[in-house]
Amino acid sequence: MDFELTPEQKMIRDTAREFAAREIAPKAAELDKTSRWPSEILAKMAELGLLGVAIPQEHGGAGMDAVSYALAMEEVSAACASCGVIMSVNNSLFCDPVYKFGSADQKERVLQPVASGQKLGCFGLTEPMSGSDAQTMVTNGEKTSGGWVINGAKNWITNGPHADWIVVFAVTDRSGSKVKHTAFLVERGTPGFTQNAADHKLGIHAAHSCTVFFENCKVPDANVLGQAGDGFKVAMATLDGGRIGIACQAIGIARAALDKSVAYAKERKSFGVPIAQHQAIQFMLADMATQLDAARLLAWRAATMKDKGVRHSAESAMAKLYASEMATRVTHKAIQIHGGYGYSTEFPVERHYRDARITEIYEGTSEIQRMVIAANLLK
Ligand code: CAA
Question: Per-residue pLDDT tens for 86-110?
């Protein structure tokens, strides 16, 4: 076992760290306050290859590995959790399945522009009445000659208001004892595919999500992703990778909160000394740092397994479960260390606290992660 990163992994981490500090962090509070979509930041992230980190260069990506992606996700998310999730959805939930399950034509026509960041992708699984129990979706895909007709709605679609492509899941066969699903690639502008205005949320304000609608939306056979009938497995395998991204988003948020807490504890005085000299504060910082490192190691293990092509469903679920709950605890303690200032919108830790909360919900709630882990234990 070797905990040392390769020179390439260190390089992408340092590049992402320097970029995030220079281009993203100074704008994070403004993005949060105004809910502005960070298009100029995304354009620069595209130039650095951050929108297709683990996609081979011949398909428009940066040609790095999943560990590099994990490192870059932490850096971007430490600066701005909204930029982190926009990046995560494009990389993990769109590019990854098109690379893994797509035809040569789809890789050239769809993956290349999205992995290089000229276009943006999103992922449509959740519906108004089906979130955790994803198989109960009602969006329907009906076979016609040369293609399919999709009808239904998907909600909480991160990147939805801006995305050029969506991978959307629909029920396409109800004849057997188990329904079968199919994954489709649908381009913005396809007649019958429309987007609502962006949702209003507690945190990650600059990462816009919305409901999208499919009304008699015709999709050609060439846009079926993977085999017809295998869509649920495409979705689940995709989420195995996506959960690593969200774990790293949570790790980035928690790291930012810890760094600010350490700095504040050295400056702020009480009872005649910096509060960092009080054991009550030291113990909080020690617990925060330990939990943060544990989460990071879980995420790196899952990413390493993904790089080796080994099934990592349980390991990704453990990383996402632990990292997201850790981020909520760590950001909570960060506010405690900052006292009244921590509760003020003038200080960034309240933003970290709000941003952390969603990581326990999207890409599978903590309860779903526990189900995946338990199913793996008991099989
Ligand atoms: N890889 C490949 N195949 C898999 C798989 C995986 N990781 N997990 C399950 N499968 C296969 C199973 O082998 C099974 O195949 P067979 O039918 O051939 O036996 C099939 O898929 C069904 O599996 P299950 O019986 O385990 O399915 P289930 O109905 O019990 O559900 C679940 C499992 C884990 C609860 C799943 O529904 C789930 O993950 N729910 C949460 C959904 C979720 O994470 N949504 C997030 C939306 S995306 C998002 O949030 C994006 C964003 O905005 C950031």
Answer: 999 999 999 999 999 999 999 999 9
User: Strands 180-187, 269-270: parallel, antiparallel or unpaired by DSSP?
Assistant: unpaired
Of all protein residues, whose CA lies closest to atom 43 belonging to ligand 1? 364
Residue for token pair 């810890």: 258
Q: Which of 242, 234, 185, 179 is nearest to 214 (CA)?
A: 185
Amino acid 205: pLDDT: 98
Which helix (H) or strand (E) segment holds residue 273: the answer is strand 273-274
CA of 364 to the centre of ligand 1 (A): 9
Residue extents of the structural domains in the chain: 7-119, 122-232, 236-378
302 contacts 319 by C-beta, under 8 angstroms: yes
CATH of the domain spanning 122-232: 2.40.110.10
List the residue whose alpha carbon is closest to atom 10 of ligand 1.
233
Fold of 7-119: Butyryl-Coa Dehydrogenase, subunit A; domain 1 (1.10.540)
- Where does the pLDDT of residue 312 fall: very low under 50, low under 70, confident under 90, or very high at 90 and above? very high
Å from CA of 146 to ligand 1 middle:
29
Residues in the chain, total: 379
Q: Rounded CA gap, 365 and 276, in Å?
A: 35
Contact at 8 Å (CB) between 79 and 57? no
* Catalytic residue IDs: 363
Give 69 Cα–ligand 1 centroid separation in angstroms. Answer: 23
Q: What is the DSSP string of 139-184?
A: -EEEEETTEEEEEEEEEEEETTTT-SEEEEEEEEE-SSSS-EEEEE
Closest CA to 372 of 181, 177, 171, 237: 237
Query: For residue 1, what pLDDT is reported?
Result: 82
Which tokens in the block code for residue 212? 């999208």
| Ligand 1, CB cutoff 6 Å, lining residues | 85, 89, 93, 123, 125-126, 132-135, 156, 158, 232-233, 236-237, 239-240, 313, 362-364, 368, 371-372
Taking only the tens place, the pLDDT of each residue in 61-71 is 999 999 999 99
236-378 has CATH 1.20.140.10 classification = yes
C-alpha span between 218 and 216 (Å, rounded): 6
Q: Which two tokens stand for residue 252?
A: 């980035």
**Closest residue by Cα to residue 173 from 186, 165, 182:** 182
